[in-house]
Specification:
4-stranded mixed beta sheet; alpha/beta
Length: 117
């Protein structure tokens, strides 16, 4: 098996598409209100969903991760591009060789940069 993609449903997918375009560049896919970006071997896609309204009330419930060989450097690049910071790069307890940094999108969904596990 291979995890192919994550789809984020939104009441305002254009707002999310604009946000993620600032961070990851022009979408590699756009179709019927959906926009997607290939990151490594998988895709992050945003689009309309009639069961989603407003901001995510539990942003920590599902967090998607981007593996990075330079979390502090990529954090600064995404922050400069307009990413909303939740947690600056840190070492999780007991893992001094690992980094994690957390961001939020305009709907309140969390995503992270993480060192390789």
């Amino acid at each position: 098996m291979n995890l192919n993609s994550i789809v984020i449903g939104s009441e305002d997918p254009k707002r999310l598409a604009d946000y993620y375009s600032k961070l990851f560049g022009a979408p590699g896919m756009e179709d019927s209100g959906y926009s997607g970006w290939e990151i490594g071997n998988g895709w992050i896609t945003v689009g309309p969903h009639d069961q989603v309204k407003g901001s995510n009330p539990e942003p920590g419930r599902v967090i998607w991760n981007i593996e990075s060989g330079d979390v502090p450097g990529d954090f600064e690049r995404l922050k400069a591009a307009g990413a909303t910071t939740v947690q600056e790069p840190y070492h999780p307890e007991g893992a001094s060789d690992m980094w994690i940094a957390t961001f939020s999108d305009p709907d309140g969904n969390y995503f992270q940069l993480m060192s390789s596990m």
